[in-house]
TrEMBL record:
<dbReference type="GO" id="GO:0046872">
    <property type="term" value="F:metal ion binding"/>
</dbReference>
<keyword id="KW-0464">Manganese</keyword>
<keyword id="KW-0378">Hydrolase</keyword>
<dbReference type="GO" id="GO:0046113">
    <property type="term" value="P:nucleobase catabolic process"/>
</dbReference>
<feature type="active site" description="Proton donor">
    <location>
        <position position="28"/>
    </location>
</feature>
<feature type="binding site">
    <location>
        <position position="89"/>
    </location>
    <ligand>
        <name>substrate</name>
    </ligand>
</feature>
<dbReference type="GO" id="GO:0004730">
    <property type="term" value="F:pseudouridylate synthase activity"/>
</dbReference>
<feature type="active site" description="Nucleophile">
    <location>
        <position position="162"/>
    </location>
</feature>
<dbReference type="GO" id="GO:0005737">
    <property type="term" value="C:cytoplasm"/>
</dbReference>
<dbReference type="Pfam" id="PF04227">
    <property type="entry name" value="Indigoidine_A"/>
</dbReference>
<comment type="subunit">
    <text>Homotrimer.</text>
</comment>
<keyword id="KW-0479">Metal-binding</keyword>
<comment type="similarity">
    <text>Belongs to the pseudouridine-5'-phosphate glycosidase family.</text>
</comment>
<feature type="binding site">
    <location>
        <position position="109"/>
    </location>
    <ligand>
        <name>substrate</name>
    </ligand>
</feature>
<protein>
    <recommendedName>
        <fullName>Pseudouridine-5'-phosphate glycosidase</fullName>
        <ecNumber>4.2.1.70</ecNumber>
    </recommendedName>
</protein>
<feature type="binding site">
    <location>
        <position position="141"/>
    </location>
    <ligand>
        <name>Mn(2+)</name>
    </ligand>
</feature>
<dbReference type="GO" id="GO:0016798">
    <property type="term" value="F:hydrolase activity, acting on glycosyl bonds"/>
</dbReference>
Amino acid sequence: MTVPTAPVTLAPDVIAAKANNTPIVALESTIITHGMPFPQNLDVARQVEADIRAKGAVPATMAVLDGTLHAGLTGHQLESLAQAKNVAKLSRADIAACMATGGTGATTVAATMIIARLAGIDVFATGGIGGVHKGAETSFDISADLTELAQTAVTVVAAGAKAILDVPKTLEVLETGGVPVIAYGQDSFPAFWSAQSALAAPLRMDRAADIARAHLMRAELGLPGGQLIANPIPTSDEISAETLAPVIAQATSEADAQGITGKGVTPFLLQRIFELTEGRSLTANIALVRNNARLAADIAHEINIARS
Ligand code: PSU
Ligand code: MN
C-alpha cells in the first residue's frame, strides 16, 4: 500500500520564506467563504495578505482545492475560492475526506492550525475563533477550534470571541484544555467587535517578543497545544456591546426558529448580523482581522529572531 507523502503543497513564496528564514503567517479561508459576503471577502483576503507582506512576512492562506491541501494560494486561487459556490467548511473532521474525494473546501481555525503545524508555521491570524455557543447546555454546540487549541502547537491571534457565543463558557473550556488565553496590551478579554469586555483575560502580555518566547517555551516544555492571543479591535473601529446585543439576540432566535444546527450555525449568525447592522459589523470585522494580521507578523518575526 502506498502512503502519500508531503500532504501539503506550499506556495512558491512560502517555500522561499522557509529557506530564507522569513516569518510566515497562516490565514484561514472559512472567513472568506462562510464569514463574509463577496466581493468584500476577496478585498479583505487580499488586504490582509498585503498587511502581512508590508510587515516583511509572507502570508499562507490555507484551503483544499480539488483534493490538494494548499498552504499559500495564488491570486487566482484566492479569487476563485472567494466566489465559488458550495465550498465545504472544513474542520478537523473533514480535511481528509475532502482530500480523498477530490473536493474543494475552506479551512476553519481548527483545520488551519492542523495545516500550519504540518507546514511548520508557528503563527496564525484570524478574526474570531469558534467557541461554546449560547444554549450549549442543551445543544452541545462547542466548536472543534477549542479542542484544536488544546492539542496543536500554533499561536492563534484573534480578537477575542464574539458575543454570539457564550464567552464565559468558552473561556472555561479553554482553561480546561490548558490553553493560555493572553490578552494583548490590556487586562480584559476583548469582545470581538468591542475592545473591552467585563471578563478578565486569564493572562496579559504587552510585547510580541514575550508572546514569541512563551510559544517557544511551551515547545521546550513539551506541551502540546497552542496559545490564543486575544488582540482588541482598534477603538476607532469598535461597535458597542449595547448596539450589538439586540442584533445578536434576534439572529440567535432566528437560528433557533429555523432549526439551524451544526456547521450552519456560525455562518448563519454572521450573515444575519451583517444584514441587521447594515454592514457595520463587516467594517469592524475587516479592521480587526487586519490588526490581528499585523500582530501575528510581529510575533512570527520575534519567533524567528529567538530561534536564530
Ligand atoms: N468566528 C468568527 N468568524 C468566523 C468564524 C468564527 O467570528 O469566520 C469561522 C472560523 O473559521 C471558525 C469557524 O473556525 O467559523 C467556527 O465554526 P464552528 O462554530 O462551526 O466550529
Ligand atoms: Mn458548532
